[in-house]
Amino acid sequence: MRSKLIVSAAVLSSLLVIIIVFGNIVIVAQQDSLTGTWTAKVRTPSEKHRTDKDDDDDEGFGDITRDDNSGEPRLQINIKRERRGHSSSNGQSYSFSELSGLTRSQTQNGPVSFTISREAGQAIFTGSFTDGRGSGTFTFTPDRAFFDRMQQKGFDFYKEKPAEDKVERSTFEDRALTAFFLNVTSARADDILAANFGNLDIDDLFKAAIFKIDGKFMAEMKATGFPNLSMEDLVKARIFKIDANFVSQISQMGFDKGNFESLVKFRIFKVTPEFLNELRAAGLANLTGEDVVKCRIFNIDANYVRNARAKDPNASIEDIVKMKIGIGKNFMRDEL
Q1: 113 within 8 A of 101, measured Cβ to Cβ
Q2: What stretches of the chain adopt beta strand conformation (E)?
Q3: Cα gap 264→250, rounded to integer Å
Q4: Terminal CA-to-CA distance of the chain, rounded, Å?
Q5: pLDDT tens for each residue of 192-232
Q6: Where are the domains of the chain?
């Protein structure tokens, strides 16, 4: 009997050890950190638009999320990670107020250790600086509590995406690091959700952060008569500077705003009220939006229209385009 108790106790003890070990594995898995290397350079306001060949400012997110007009020096930090034989890098600039444990004077010479803390997690940088340039290693630890809250809001950073050919599958830690660099916050998530744009995923959240798309902008664009805009459409709107005022301007020019791609064309080819009025004054009436775009594409201005109409008073837009490219009847391109 006693031997059975001893065996039972031994088995139970072993199970406890196994549970503790597995428990530790789970805990470690939930606290997985990412590591890599970093380089940095102090940038002054005068260097804002200058690119150095030695820097990697154009990789990754760069300064697209930056919104700073303080005129204060900033620290451009570029990181690099190696994973499964692949390397990835990105960079972003930070104000020194965001860097805990680092002052500008410390970037002149000597070893450093500083921290950047955001809702998505914390990154610890160690290394050294010489004359405003530094390098070293970093460790990023995601904040699981934050991503648990984001999951409840519908932004699931834990969800694995289907594998794609020749595309490295991202891990939770990869997505968490992206959220960290883009400074994704609960407030930003709540803001874009309030615009009622349907189901949004973490890629939409990243795009909103990169292109500064907030709930106000989303609601304004929806109110212009495009209720079914996607986040991709909103990204195009930001890239091409299309807002509610521009949509209103197109309507005031007498054009049906058509589909969203029409607005993109108008902005790309610089269709403005001034240009339209010049064409109309030159004798072109009842112009469609596509007609004006064609004029921009083929560099047809009011003066060219007047010369073309002097040769053929009934020349249409199509006729004038043919004249411009040198295939119109009795007209050669160089004659006008």
Answers
A1: yes
A2: 34-43, 74-83, 86-95, 109-118, 121-130, 133-142
A3: 11
A4: 113
A5: 999 988 889 999 999 999 999 999 999 999 888 887 889 99
A6: 34-141, 269-335
Q: Which structure tokens are listed for 228?
A: 């079914």
The rounded Cα 178 to chain-centroid distance in angstroms is 11
- Tens of pLDDT along 91-134? 999 999 999 999 999 999 999 999 999 999 999 999 999 999 99
Strands 121-130 and 109-118: antiparallel
Strand order in the sheet with 133-142: 86-95, 74-83, 34-43, 133-142, 121-130, 109-118
The pLDDT of residue 49 is: 46
> Tokens 């744009």 belong to which residue?
197
Task: For strands 121-130 and 133-142, give the pairing.
Answer: antiparallel
CB 60 within 8 A of CB 91: yes
